[in-house]
Write a structure and sequence with these properties.
Shape: globular
Structural class: alpha/beta
CATH superfamily: P-loop containing nucleotide triphosphate hydrolases
Protein name: Damage-inducible mutagenesis protein
Order of helices and strands: HHEHEEHEHEHEHEEEEEH
CATH architecture: 3-Layer(aba) Sandwich
Number of domains: 1
InterPro entries: ImuA (IPR017026), P-loop_NTPase (IPR027417)
CATH topology: Rossmann fold
């Protein structure tokens, strides 16, 4: 007499619960290995490199594949300035985003943003030329966040697109998952630039927080020093796990070499901190 499994008579809800329990029992390391294989296959189909180096060894050594993943979603947050407030369009966060865009190789850069308000300003082309040729830039203006996310997702599927960036204050987990899947499938990086912190739970591969830092001036002079940014890697999904504290670097931009470099600790230790306090105060 055949034995009938009790699962045959189980309701759809109970079978779904059992499937979720079975998925949860799969070791996280195995799930991550499968995701890495899928991502590598997507990148191979797209003909792109799996990752792109930022040119900063201290940071690249922590990132998966030794650089920023191309087929992935990355989030960039503007941190509070000296006044404790976040500007709607922070120059440091926008500059860091432009630096990342310039590392992803040739092709069109799709930049999606909401319709400009009285306090909003368009990106300044001569300043962007420090990181990439402004002629590569394709700007899309959306009236709603839903339209912005739709334009980003469609751009990730278009041939000839090197990278897609979206400026938004919205935090939509569903849109984030769709962007992440589209980036993985086509091997095109997606960047979200926010003036507000994103949701704690996110599918992004990396999340960065950028804060402007006082520039170093020549002693005895009132000259304007090179731009400096305090960069925090607050999420590193596929990279080397960090210690208990969030890794942070003080970076300085060099206008001559067009490169970012870590400021040595000796130049921003206690003495440098006192100097920064004088500049801020």
């Amino acid at each position: 007499m055949p034995v009938i499994s009790p699962n045959v008579f189980a309701s759809p809800v109970s079978r779904a619960v059992a499937a979720n329990d079975a998925a949860a029992s799969v070791p996280a390391t195995l799930r991550e290995k499968v995701r890495r294989l899928e991502r590598a296959n997507s990148v191979q189909r797209s003909g792109r490199a799996a990752s792109v180096k930022l040119g900063i060894p201290a940071i690249d050594s922590l990132l998966p594949e030794g650089g920023l993943l191309t087929g992935a979603l990355h989030e960039i947050e503007a941190g509070p300035g000296p006044s404790g407030r976040v500007a709607p369009h922070d120059g440091a966060a926008l500059g860091f985003a432009a630096h990342l865009l310039g590392r992803f190789g040739p092709g069109t850069i799709l930049w999606c943003r909401r319709a400009a308000g009285p306090s909003d300003a368009m990106p300044y082309a001569p300043a962007l030329s420090s990181w990439f040729e402004p002629a590569r830039l394709l700007m899309v203006t959306a009236r709603r966040d839903e339209d912005l996310f739709w334009a980003m997702e469609e751009g990730l599927r278009c041939p000839g697109i090197a990278a897609v960036l979206g400026e938004t204050r919205a935090s939509d987990p569903t849109a984030g998952r769709r962007l992440s899947l589209a980036a993985e499938k086509n091997g095109v990086p997606a960047l979200l630039l926010r003036a507000q912190p994103g949701a704690p739970q996110s599918v992004c591969a990396t999340r960065w927080r950028i804060v402007s830092a006082p520039s170093a001036s020549t002693p005895g002079l009132t000259d304007v020093g090179a731009a400096r940014w305090r960069v925090e890697l607050r999420r590193n999904r596929f990279g080397t796990p960090s210690a208990d504290e969030i890794p942070s670097w003080l970076l300085e931009w060099n206008d001559e070499t067009h490169c970012l470099a870590v400021v040595p600790q000796a130049l921003h230790g206690p003495a440098g901190a006192r100097f920064e306090e004088r500049l801020v105060g």
